[in-house]
Amino acid sequence: MLAVHFDRPGGPEVLHLKEVATPRPAEGEVLLKVAASALNRADLLQRQGHYALPPGASSILGLEASGHVAELGPGCQGHWKIGDPAMALLPGGGQAQYVTVPEDLLMPIPKGLTMLQAAAIPEAWLTAFQLLHLCGHVQAGDSVLIHAGSSGVGTAAIQLARKAGAIPLVTAGSKHKLQMTERLGAAAGFNYKEEDFAEATLKFTKGAGVNLILDCIGGSYWEKNVNCLALDGCWVLYGLMGGADISGPLLSKLLFKRGSLITTLLRPRDKKYKQMLVEAFTEQILPHFSKEGPQRLLPVLDRVYPVAEIQAAHEYLEANKNTGKIVLELPQ
């Protein structure tokens, strides 16, 4: 099968397609014939040599994919049959023509969605669902500040926050990106390049601050995050795009707010946790991708690249040009 490959860490130029052996499904796994796979920041970090693989994960890039069940491994419980369309949460391996998946990490593709749209759901939407509900315990009426609001996780979090009855606020780096987030349901958006988002957030909330912050930036945002966090608020950190170093009285400021700082990652989680997350998402959220009306959930796609143009896809994501997900289409 064809798979995205790189022989050494580096820039997008190290990526190429390579013929590799098709994996075989182990006990309780299915083989998925991949139609599409979406890019994530972890793909960039892994390519650069900055992301250690979880134990047992494929070295092939790709944390989410859509396609059709091609083979059932021994011990499968009968949830899936050959030919079924499905989308999958993966620890790696999605950017190839075939990938093996534990059967409990597959999800049905919602009615009305294409394979390209479905590929943009698993990693981004399960991350957003985890951040809001399992980590942040979002409640109706809560104000939620979502950094990188136009990203794949950000666009999912806006819609899921709205569905929970919360008030999503976002940061982004351009007028175009902010306009897109407002169309998705953001109550307000702040251009971090042009204004102090903490001051703008406090103004919007009439000085109260936000109940929940979803933060993929980290170090460079710590002080502004604490400044605009409400009393007893929760700050959920899931990325370090702005660095890992902190200089200043973080703990005293957080203590004064009685704030909580929770850190989380999805990719290294164990199979049991991911199964629980997939089951909850499938039951509570997945049906809303198929319901017509203003509350319908939709993955946001920015661009679709043939997998042969993997270098260009990485360059586009690395330049932070995307609003929503970048999807790779695999040859059938």
Largest sheet: 7 strands, mixed
Low-confidence stretches: none
CATH topology of the largest domain: Quinone Oxidoreductase, Chain A, domain 1
* Structural class estimated from helices and strands: alpha/beta
Portion in strands: 25-35%
Spell the H/E element sequence. Answer: EEEHEEEEHHEHEHEHEHEHEHEHE
CATH H-level homologous superfamily name of the largest domain: Medium-chain alcohol dehydrogenases, catalytic domain
Q: Concise description?
A:
The protein has 332 residues and is an alpha/beta fold. It is 28% helix and 25% strand. It is globular.
Structural key phrases:
7-stranded mixed sheet, 10 helices, Rossmann fold, quinone binding, Quinone Oxidoreductase, Chain A, domain 1, globular, ADH-like_C, 28% helix, alpha/beta, 332 residues, 15 strands, 2 domains
How would you describe this protein?
- Strands 3, 4, 5, 6, 7, 14 and 15 form a seven-stranded mixed β-sheet that branches. Strands 10-9-8-11-12-13 form a six-stranded parallel β-sheet, with helices on both faces. The protein has a two-stranded antiparallel sheet with strand order 1-2.
- 28% of the residues lie in helices and 25% in strands.
- It is of the alpha/beta class.
- α3 (122-135) crosses α4 (152-163).
- The chain has two domains: 2-121 and 269-329, Medium-chain alcohol dehydrogenases, catalytic domain (Quinone Oxidoreductase, Chain A, domain 1, Alpha-Beta Complex), CATH 3.90.180.10; 126-263, 3-Layer(aba) Sandwich (Rossmann fold), CATH 3.40.50.720.
- Keywords: NADP, Oxidoreductase.
- InterPro entries: ADH-like_C, ADH-like_N, ER, GroES-like_sf, NAD(P)-bd_dom_sf, Quinone_OxRdtase_PIG3.
- Pfam families: ADH_N, ADH_zinc_N.
